[in-house]
Amino acid sequence: MVHSAYDAVELVAGVPGRIEAVASHAGKLLVASSDSEGFLRGSECSLRIYSSPASSPEGGGEIRRDGPYALERHEQRFWRRPPLAMEVSASRDLLLSLSEWVALHRLPGLEAVAVVSNKTKGANVFAWDDRRGLLAVGRQKRLTVFRLDSGREFVEVKEFGVPDILKSMAWCGDNICLGIRREYMIINSMTGALTEVFSSGRIAPPLVVPLPTGELLLGKDNIGVFVDQNGKLIQDGRIIWSDTPASVVIHRPYAVARLPRHVEIRSLRAPNALVQTVVLRDVQKLVQTGNCILAALSNSVCGLLPVPIGAQIVQLTASGEFEEALALCKLLPPEDSNLRSAKESSIHIRYGHFLFDSGNYEEAMEQFSDSHVDITYVLSLYPSIVLPQTHIIGEHDKLLDMPELATESSDVTERWNHTHYSSMNQMINLHWR
């Protein structure tokens, strides 16, 4: 199931020094980079903001593909050390970053809001719950939970000891999934109760990836395992990558992994087939934004911009990937309900033809039934079947033109179809024995 789900577009090139982190806000790119001298000293890092020349207030804050982004603002020595993590809260217009400690800045002006120096100095990982304004910070063998109070300061809520150094973590409801050296654990953010999940891989450090559904994808070398909020395995839930990913982001309906030689895109639907491979070497970071994925290389930023769902459906249908095409139909916007119905009907008909030509007659009947195609169309596929007198078709029931078959079917005909598809199956079985 290989098709083009994303277009790789270079957004920014020639960033001085080395890119350490990247994010987006209101359609602009925020790039943290170690300047040449600062990079040699291992300290000091600038923040550069890039905007698209074609951007407008009506753009909806999305990353655009029309032309390279230009430098709009440069804040030198924004951090004393390169940030280990940087994240934007679009709903609150805030920039969270972890350098020497966790700092909070207001966007777009970059005014300093809060610095949490006491309990976060020397921290190496954080997880932000944007809906509830909760921040979990991992420092050595300590986990501290803060609450953003009135959008101005972080108030400590809880602090817990954990068995080993924290490497990765993510919120999952009231729980936090922890990647601790070589194993995964679930901790309750209110009580501190710990539950072991399973060990991580032998090669790669633990990798915790949250899903929009509240579930998690946990890395085990080149395998991603799906678990629920309590760490329970989801049946038949795993992704097998072609190599061990350094990071994974979720951009429905796909999981996107940063591998040593390329970026790999796989379906979130079982059996999690390969969708696309994007050859981008030296990718340092993958970041999911509202409408795309940002891939930060050493000195440039590429955007993986999704191909429109309708175009992907056409690709999949043409290549015979009918199940995947039908799954993508469900992602069409609600306002396109008529288009969705027409596409689904058309795909069911093509799928039915494919199954019929393959000799899978019962399965073909199911697809024709789901398409709501007139029963007379199905009967026309079996010219050698002699129907009983009660099944003789009148002039008013004769086959309509194909475009109308996918969209126009009277209530009476639909009820008739539903009643007679089962008897059609029986006749077909007798015919092909």
Automatic annotation (TrEMBL):
| Pfam families per UniProt | CNH (PF00780)
Q: Keywords of this protein's UniProt record, alphabetized?
A: Cytoplasm, Protein transport, Transport
Say which species the protein is native to. Panicum virgatum (Blackwell switchgrass)
The source's domain of life comes to Eukaryota
List the record's Gene Ontology CC terms alphabetically: cytoplasm; membrane
- Major localization class: cytoplasm
Q: Where in the cell is it found?
A: Cytoplasm
Q: Which GO terms describe its biological process?
A: autophagy; endosomal vesicle fusion; protein transport
Is the keyword Cytoplasm assigned to this protein? yes
Q: Does the keyword Glycoprotein apply?
A: no
Q: What are the residue boundaries of the CNH domain, all occurrences included?
A: 16-293
Q: Which residues cross the membrane?
A: none
Q: What is this protein called?
A: CNH domain-containing protein
